[in-house]
Input
Amino acid sequence: MASAQIRHFYNTPTTISSTTTTTRQLLQQQKHTNKRKQFQNDTFLWHTQTQSESVAATSTGAVGEGATPWPEATIGAATETPGPAIAATSTAATSKPATDDAPASATTIWPRRTTDEIVTKHPRMQHPLASSSAAATCNIAVATATEQQQCIASTAAATTGISEQDCRHTTSTCLSRLSSKVSQDSTNQQKQQQQQPQPQPKQQQAQRRLLQQQGAARDSDASTSTTPGVGIFTDMQKFARSIFPLVIIFNLLPLFYAGAGAAHLKSPGADGEPWMQPVVAYLEVSSRPTKSPKCDQTFVSRIGGPQNGSFSAPLLHNHRNHSRQCLYTFLAGPGQRVEVVFKSFNLRGSPPDGSAVGELPSCVHEYMDIYSEVQSSEPAELINSPFGGRYCGTIPPRRRISMYRAVAISFFSNKNVSTDLFEGTFRFINASEYEIGIPIAGSPCSYTITPSMSVNKTGALISPTYPGAYPKDMSCTYQFLGESNQRVRLEFRDFDLFFGGPHCPFDYVKVYDGPDNSSALIGTYCGQQRNLVLYSSESSLFVHFYTLPRTANTQNRGFKGIYEFSESFVKLDFIRENDGIHIRGSECDQKILSKKESTGFVLSPNYPYPYIPKTVCRYFIYGMQDAQHLERVRLEFNAFNIPKVEHKDKSESNCTDGYLKIYLKGQETADAYDKFDYELCGNETQRVISEGPRLAMVFSSGELQGRGFKGKYTFETEYKIPGTAAPDGTCSFTYVSSSKKRGELNSPRYPSNYPSDTNCSYLFLGEANEQVTIVFDHFKIKADNNANATAGAYGSGACFEDWLEMYVVYRDNNDRLLGRYCGQTAPGPVESPRGAVGLRITLHTDQESVASGFKARYFFESAKSDAGDCGGNFSNQDSGIITSPNWPAGYKAPGRGMASNACNWVMTARPGYKLSIHFEQFGLEGDPANRGCPAAVLRLWMNVDSDQPPLELCGEKPPVEHWHYTSTGQTARISFTTSDKTVGAQGFRIVWTEIQDSGPGPPSVGLHCESTYHFQCGAGYCISDKLRCDGVKNCGPGDDTDELHCES
Output
């Protein structure tokens, strides 16, 4: 039954692609093929039977009356063994080896029909060779008609004494001569018809009457020398001659081809009729794919038969340039599947990406279609089977395992000659390997697995067609249900799925920590996975394997692994009881999250009892890390016992069996586990602090048992500030010259935003005869709406939310404020004065919004003089002029290797007097309103004995503005500092004058000025009379009264 079904499918051209014929075209092609085969069968039967009748008529004429026509059984026997004329033609046709275009066929058993049935069914097929003249040429001495019938029927003529071989030889000689003469007469008649003009209707009637008269004369001559039985045959000749012209024209070409062109026939036809092949070729006008039984192949698994073999491409000699389609079908037995492996592959075309993929447009002239999900042996169901991909080029398709019991391969080619196109092997394998558990109804690949179904509670987990390419549009589930005290372990030893991205949007395997897909998801996996081992938290696990319903453009294997139900896996109580969180999918991994500066304990499995051997547990301790918080982890052990192994080689680690590795940066990837910071074993204890918000540990128990460990963790706020942190964990850092001469400092978590509600302190302490310099490179502190004030965003009036303050530290713990800063107004470079211990910086943030903070550099250098690199002390003088270095050419940056340059001027007035300071010209790099004075700055103290901070000045003074200051005490100080960031500018010119302040109001000459200072300026100040008419405006801006009425 299966063979009949497959043969029926072979005769049905099947092409599955976007470029093949439509369903209507397939039906027309089916109809055309059936008609052509029926025509071949009927034509061959007609020739065979009429030739046999011609021989019988000749024999009957020699015997005389008493002969009877051949019965139906005799005609049927004659058709089983072709007559001599046909055998001669077949011999000439088969002189060349058989090929696929004309495959050699065994003797075909044809339907038995009488001559009357043939004439009735095919009126056009009356035999054109029934001529008495031709019959007269055959001289066969046969005793009776019965012996002649027995000879033709290939039976022993025991009663006559004539051997079957002699009979066959005699009959063959007769029919061969008869066939040759008929062919010659037909050819001569055709030539005469071509040379003569076409007769008119009347002429045709006359010729027809003439032929009838000639036939009657011949009949009369024959009847005089034959028995009455010849009359029957004569009537048949008359009937045949009446339609002879039509039949001879129709058969002229094939008969000529059979007689003169037999050398072109390479083998008998598809159904054993060699001389009919030219007729089929002549009628064949369609270019649709041609199929033949030698092209299609079927491999069936039978009991006791071979279970493997090989297959290869057909040898096509396609001289008519017809396209060919061949179907290879592999049918496994019950409980079996088919495995197909390609050893070589060399088809025309090239896939788009250079590998065998299923993109249809790229494989046009020659390709192979694969179907590995054929569910029924009915060939008509192949078109309903999922398409497994179209392949061409030189890269062979990967291994295929049938989803059910069959694999079909369709090969198409339009080559003239094709050899060595592909080669492969097949074998029928046991399907029980893919039956993992209890099948779930409605799915061909879903199972429920329990411990009682496997030996030692373990078994294999395998994808539906592993290791062959898995099908598309598939959903398989695997439900593992263990006992209440068990856990489930899955280990994927081979995992190869299509990788569509890190989130696996296409093909994937999802594993759930529970009995179904509503449980917590452990993970989604695709691509190629290595060392993928998963554990359930409880007694059940659910696996879902899904492939996208798309064009088959991938050939991934799927997966194979093992599963295990066990009561010996680590119990998770030691995690839950200590505020840990079990990491799903692991045996005993856990994570610990901070609750803001919280503390807790970490323990080894089963502590305080001995731990389980050969167990690996990972600990991930996470401090807070968000916009407002950043923590680090402090870890110290209260108990520690992991047996160590002593080695003679001291360079070798003693922790070769069990160990605890600590990673201060919190490595979470497997490839980073070799870069540990500490490896502990024995009875060691260690106090460690993470280098960020995370700390990781890996505990491996080895084969020797111990009690394990108990550790205490503490989450501390992490400021990410370089320097020596305070022991109490507060935001206090110290920078000592003896440990480091230069370095960096920054706000907490810079360049990220600093946290809110924070107070940090930075203390810089130099050695004796040292001073410290600080230069700011970045500055952005949150400020209020007055942050862009003209005078700069500094001072208590401008900065009252977040701010930075700088202090000079003296030995008596008397700190002097240098300034308060906020906004983007960076402090200028600062040097600690001689006699000071160092500098201190404080940062204050409130509970509102935050900013990026600051970054600065510090330098410890040898102490300079009080005047610094330039400057001086002025006392007992009436007036003076202070200019920047290299005035008016412009100041320059410090020398190479120097952090800063500083010039300090101190002016001291007599008791009871003050100082007038007038900035005539001023130009320093910087912008107080926008970016401050980070490169160069001038600081002015109005009273050095006061705690008031100095004024910081930079930028350029407009000509129309007047910068004039009066000291509040007897002494004033000016400090000009440049840094290694200085570019240079014009500088400044300052005029200072000792004055007696008369107070507000109009001047009263002689009332408030002493005799020594007997000149009073228009602004009311009393200055020394010596300064009058000295060329310097000592009265201040807008007041030049001291330079009026001067004698030349």
Remarks:
- The first helix runs from residue 2 to 10.
- The domain at 870-1001+1008-1027 is CATH 2.60.120.290 (Jelly Rolls).
